[in-house]
């Protein structure tokens, strides 16, 4: 009887938590709906409405995609089979369990490890984690290329929707900036007492205040994520350096500025501003700088940034070649 009550209470708490998790999203939706009403119907700035609606459409479109694009989970080949799961759970010696995971990981394209050098294994999902995959305690699942769990979209940001999240931040900044700049002249009229309507005064004042407040916070967040994209890092990797088979490497996924951007937005620039999935790959494996260097020793001495100037490129190659000759000479 007591166990039944505990299960019912636990289920009720989970249900309440799911409902409450939508509160931040509801707040954002209400603020946006009010801003639309105040801007379009109260102020009725006809000259600005065409561009306003274009920005508004992309803003709401990317917000919708960020919320309702489900996080992508590892496919079945990364899960332990029933037999392997039984063997792993029945084995009591940690060193044997560790070796079992090493043997299983040899068949998979995984190159990152834990801080102690062990294979990254999720004991809740019973799978070997692909590179850049992490377990989200809120979503209760492993998410491919997990960046963070965002309460403002009530979703986990990862491989499947990171592009949409970046676009949402960009269009949010543009939306707030556009409202603030177009409403500012009316704010000056309000300050001088030239607005006769009391309702217009209220909407002008709060439109400018809310737009500026959100603009400051959003531009900082957007700038931070732009920096992450330029380095091909996730938020988790920025705080905790990924560990590879040959040790920690903070620039392990840094391929150069242009290629880093293409890892999120894809090769076709016509899709960069549209919330359509265009990220390359399947989210289970990613190109790594260390692997490129192992294939070509000359790359080890090059900077991770691409340079399009012929002179600088020739200089880099010549320096790399000299370093390579010295290295070969020392090995003799």
Automatic annotation (TrEMBL):
InterPro entries: Palmitoyltrfase_DHHC, PFA4/ZDH16/20/ERF2-like. Keywords: Acyltransferase, Membrane, Transferase, Transmembrane, Transmembrane helix. Pfam families: DHHC (PF01529). GO terms for cellular component: membrane. The keyword Nucleotide-binding does not apply. It catalyses: L-cysteinyl-[protein] + hexadecanoyl-CoA = S-hexadecanoyl-L-cysteinyl-[protein] + CoA. Its EC number is 2.3.1.225. It comes from the Eukaryota. It is an enzyme of class 2 (transferase). Residues 120-238 form the Palmitoyltransferase DHHC domain. GO terms for molecular function: protein-cysteine S-palmitoyltransferase activity. It is a multi-pass membrane protein. The chain crosses the membrane at residues 20-39, 45-64, 168-190, 202-224. Its main location: membrane. The DHHC domain is required for palmitoyltransferase activity. This is Palmitoyltransferase. The lineage of its organism: Eukaryota, Metazoa, Chordata, Craniata, Vertebrata. The gene is ZDHHC15.
């Amino acid at each position: 009887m007591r166990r039944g009550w505990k299960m019912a209470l636990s289920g009720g708490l989970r249900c309440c938590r799911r409902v409450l998790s939508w509160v931040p999203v509801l707040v954002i939706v209400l603020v946006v709906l009010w801003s639309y009403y105040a801007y379009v119907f109260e102020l009725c700035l006809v000259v600005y409405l065409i561009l306003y609606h274009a920005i508004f459409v992309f803003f709401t479109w990317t917000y919708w995609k960020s919320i309702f694009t489900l996080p992508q989970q590892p496919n079945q080949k990364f899960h332990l089979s029933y037999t392997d799961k039984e063997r792993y759970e029945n084995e009591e010696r940690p060193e044997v369990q560790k070796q079992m995971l090493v043997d299983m990981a040899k068949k998979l394209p995984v190159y990152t490890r834990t801080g102690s050098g062990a294979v990254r294994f999720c004991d809740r999902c019973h799978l070997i984690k692909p590179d850049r995959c992490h377990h989200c305690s809120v979503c209760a699942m492993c998410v491919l290329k997990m960046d963070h769990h965002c309460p403002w979209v009530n979703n986990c940001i990862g491989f499947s929707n990171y592009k949409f999240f970046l676009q949402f931040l960009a269009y949010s900044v543009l939306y707030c900036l556009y409202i603030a700049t177009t409403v500012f002249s009316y704010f000056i009229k309000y300050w001088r007492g030239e607005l006769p309507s009391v309702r217009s005064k209220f909407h002008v004042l709060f439109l400018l205040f809310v737009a500026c407040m959100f603009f400051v916070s959003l531009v900082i967040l957007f700038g931070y994520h732009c920096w992450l994209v330029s380095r091909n890092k996730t938020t988790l990797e920025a705080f905790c350096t990924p560990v590879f088979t040959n040790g920690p490497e903070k620039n392990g996924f840094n391929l150069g500025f242009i290629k880093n951007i293409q890892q999120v937005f894809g090769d076709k620039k016509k899709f960069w501003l549209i919330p359509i999935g265009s990220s390359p790959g399947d989210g289970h494996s990613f190109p790594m700088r260390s692997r490129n260097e192992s294939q070509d020793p000359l790359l080890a001495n090059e900077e991770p940034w691409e340079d399009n100037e012929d002179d600088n490129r020739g200089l880099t190659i010549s320096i790399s070649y000299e370093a390579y000759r010295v290295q070969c000479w020392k090995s003799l």
